[in-house]
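Exercise 7. Given the encoded structure of a 339-residue chain, write a plausible sequence.
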C-alpha cells in the first residue's frame, strides 16, 4: 500500500476525463483503509472510488482518492431455498453476477453488465430491467472512517429508494462499504416484466427460461443501446427519471399539446422517462466540442475524447434548464458530481 502523488485518474473513472488527484492509494482490506483514512491526520479531502462508473469530476481533486480493491466471494450460509453470498466491496459487479449465473443462483441476472464495484451497488440501489439490488440484498458491513468503527446495515437501515440509499443522504461520505451479503434464490424466480426484455426473449423464440438466457439477453440489449465506456466515456444514465404529481403531468402535457409518457408509482405519483423529456428538447445527438448527448440514448452524456468534466457538467445544467423551461419538470442528476 503506497500513497502516490499527482495521480492521473483518467483510467479510474468511466468518463475518462483528464483529471488529476493530489494523492491516490489502493486498499485491499480494512486495516489498509484505516491507515489511509488517517493520512495527513485525516485533514484532507477523501473520496472512495470503486470502478468510477457513477462519478463526474468537474476539476482536479485536491485530496486523496482511495480506490477499493477488497477481494473475495464466499458462500456463508445455505437453506433449502436460498444461498447467502458475501462479496468484497472491490469485486467488480460483473464478476459477482457472472459467478451467480454460472452457479445458477437467481436474482441478479437482470443486473448483468452494470459496470462498477460490488461495494458501490447499494449506494444508489442499482437497478435495471425490472430488478433492483434491494430485491436480493441481505446486509452489508461498513467502516466509519472518522470515528473508526464498524457497523452492519440491514436492508431497512439502508433506506433504499429509487437510485437512493442512506449512504447518499444521512451518511453521505461517512461510511466505506467493505463487503455486501446477498440472498440469492436456489429455485429461480424469473423476472421478465420489463418490456424490452420480454420483447427480446420473444424475438429469440425462447421455449424455456434460464438464468443464463436472461443474463445473455440483458447483455445483448445493453450492448446495443449503451456506449462502451472504453470507447466513449460515459457514466450510464446521467439523470434520474423524475417522479411527479398528476397535476404537473397534466400541466406539462397541456402546455406542449403532447402526451407525456408516464408510469404510475402510486395513486398520486408518476415516473416520466427523462430520456424522452431530453429528446423532446432537441438534445439527442447534440455535441459541443467533445461533450455530448449520446445519439442512441439521450439520457447518457458522453465524452467523445477530450471533454473536460466541467464541460459535461455545464451541458447537464443546460439540459436541466431547457427541460424545466419546456415542461416545468426538474431533472435530478443520478451521477455523483465531484466539485
Ligand atoms: C455504461 C454504464 C451503464 C450503467 N448502467 C447502470 C444501470 O443499468 N443501473 C444502475 O443503477 N447504474 C448504472 N450505471 C452506473 C454505475 O455503474 C453504478 O452506479 C455502479 O454501482 C457504480 O459503481 P462504481 O464502483 O463504479 O462506483 P463509483 O463511481 O466508483 O462511486 C460512486 C459513488 O459511490 C461511492 N462509493 C464507491 N464505492 C464505495 C464504497 N465501497 N463505500 C462507500 N462509498 C463508495 C463513491 O464515493 C461515489 O460517490 C451505469 C454506468 C455506466 C458507465
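Solution.
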Amino acid at each position: 500500500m503506497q500513497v502516490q502523488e499527482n495521480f492521473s485518474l483518467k483510467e479510474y473513472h468511466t468518463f475518462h476525463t483528464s483529471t488529476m488527484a493530489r494523492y491516490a492509494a489502493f486498499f485491499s482490506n480494512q486495516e489498509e483503509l484505516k491507515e489511509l483514512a488517517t493520512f495527513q491526520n485525516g485533514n484532507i479531502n477523501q473520496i472512495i472510488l470503486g470502478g468510477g462508473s457513477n462519478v463526474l469530476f468537474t476539476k482536479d481533486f485536491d485530496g486523496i482518492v482511495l480506490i477499493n480493491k477488497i477481494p473475495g466471494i464466499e458462500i456463508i450460509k445455505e437453506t433449502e431455498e436460498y444461498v447467502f453470498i458475501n462479496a468484497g466491496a472491490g469485486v467488480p459487479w460483473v464478476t459477482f453476477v457472472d459467478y451467480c449465473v454460472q452457479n445458477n443462483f437467481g436474482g441478479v441476472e437482470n443486473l448483468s453488465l452494470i459496470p462498477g464495484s460490488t461495494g458501490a451497488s447499494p449506494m444508489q440501489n442499482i437497478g435495471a430491467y425490472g430488478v433492483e439490488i434491494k430485491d436480493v440484498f441481505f446486509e452489508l458491513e461498513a467502516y466509519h472512517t472518522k470515528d473508526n468503527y464498524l457497523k452492519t446495515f440491514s436492508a431497512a437501515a439502508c433506506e433504499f429508494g429509487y437510485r437512493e440509499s442512506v449512504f447518499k443522504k444521512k451518511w453521505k461520505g461517512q461510511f466505506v462499504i467493505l463487503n455486501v451479503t446477498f440472498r440469492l434464490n436456489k429455485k429461480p424466480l424469473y423476472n421478465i416484466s420489463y418490456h424490452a426484455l420480454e420483447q427480446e426473449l420473444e424475438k429469440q423464440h425462447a421455449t424455456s427460461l434460464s438464468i443464463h438466457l436472461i443474463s445473455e439477453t440483458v447483455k445483448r440489449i445493453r450492448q446495443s443501446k449503451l456506449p462502451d465506456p472504453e470507447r466513449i466515456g460515459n457514466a450510464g444514465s446521467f439523470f434520474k427519471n423524475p417522479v411527479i404529481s398528476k397535476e404537473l403531468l397534466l400541466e406539462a402535457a397541456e402546455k406542449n399539446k403532447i402526451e407525456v409518457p408516464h408510469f404510475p408509482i402510486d395513486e398520486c405519483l408518476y415516473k416520466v422517462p427523462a430520456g424522452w423529456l431530453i429528446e423532446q428538447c432537441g438534445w439527442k445527438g447534440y455535441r459541443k466540442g467533445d461533450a455530448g448527448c449520446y445519439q442512441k440514448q439521450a439520457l447518457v452524456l458522453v465524452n467523445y475524447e477530450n471533454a473536460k468534466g466541467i464541460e459535461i457538467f455545464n451541458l447537464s445544467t443546460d439540459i436541466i434548464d431547457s427541460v424545466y423551461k419546456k415542461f416545468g419538470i426538474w431533472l435530478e442528476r443520478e451521477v455523483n458530481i465531484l466539485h
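Remark. Residues 14, 47-55, 68, 89, 114-117, 119-121, 123-124, 126-128, 176-177, 226, 229, 234-236, 336 surround flavin-adenine dinucleotide (CB under 6 Å). Students should compare their own answers with the one above.
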